[in-house]
Model the fold of this input.
Amino acid sequence: MKLTRNILFIMLLSLLLTGCWGSKEIEHMIYVNSIGADYVNNKAVLYVQVINFSGIAKQESAQPKVQKTYVGKAEGDSFEEALFKLYATSQQSIAWSHVKTIVFSEAALQHGLVNEVLDVWDRYYEFRYTVWTMATKDSIEKVFNTKSTSELSVLYSQLNSPLQPYSQSSIIAPLYLYEFIRRWNDAGQTVLLPYLKIAPGWTEDNKPSPKLKPDGICMLKNKQFKGCLDHRYLLGLRWLEKKTERTPLEIKRDNSVLAMFVMTKIRSSIKPQVTDGKASFNIKISMQGTLPQLNSRLKQKKLEELAAQQVKKQIMGTYLKGLEIGVDLLGLSDKVYREIPDEWKKLEEGGNLPLDKNSITAIDVNVKLMSGGIAKIKQH
Done:
């Protein structure tokens, strides 16, 4: 009798189990890979880049298949409204949990669309904060339709995997969304948002095949857009960026290249101090270099001195360019804000620390040539 009751009890419990009634087949879902935010004619414009994941699996088989990329577009009076309008044309349920990148247009940054996007991001559980955050001056639709190289998936491109090329040539540091939000909400920091450009230089079957490249940064301070600068003015940033792994340095004289360094193991520190109500900074940098190209008879010590001088010049050049547009590109204000916050509160004016061309009192750069071309130097 007891056994019969137990069996009946278990059977009743089984009726309460839902099983997989509410599940969805993964091949019937639309997986968004990248999101774009634009602002056109007083409307928020949403772009989504969708890829077919089955194409990735076939790339590893004996019969490779070119992977197709699809771009969806919707607009509304708000970013949230644009998102819901996209659902109407999506054909199947949209999954947001695989988003890898979010791209803002320059217009979106100028008109404060960042706040709307972050609000939606905070409220919906599928979105993640470990996505790459970028900007662009080009059409987002064209950026999303730009192919990768050698029929690779767009998953393996500057849009979705920026760390791979950055590890070979560290110029413009990529930025995760959680880093963006931290700097966005921090009074002492300036957001340096990398922007992508569609650049020529590649061909496919003798036809132009432009690719994406990081070409500069857009700056936001106190949640306000401050403008964009291309990479020519930003060469000093890499020497203070903790993410920098490997970066080139040319030594020139009269437009002729004397030598080419490849710098690694870059270590930097910024020491802030306040004297007589004015902030000043000492910067120290050390690095190791190899010498893949040498077109002169300069000795090792002289080459190291020239490299150190060029690094100092680039740092000051970037710093002074920032002062021209009212932006602290080197993050000096943040050093005071974090290390001597009481002084920052006394000195700050509207969330900004007063800086001038004399605020950097010293830049000490130590370059050590380790290998690559040393034997050639000794022969000279």
About this structure: The mean pLDDT is 87. Residues 235-380 form a domain with the GMP Synthetase; Chain A, domain 3 fold (CATH 3.30.300.210). The chain is about 30% helix and 35% strand.
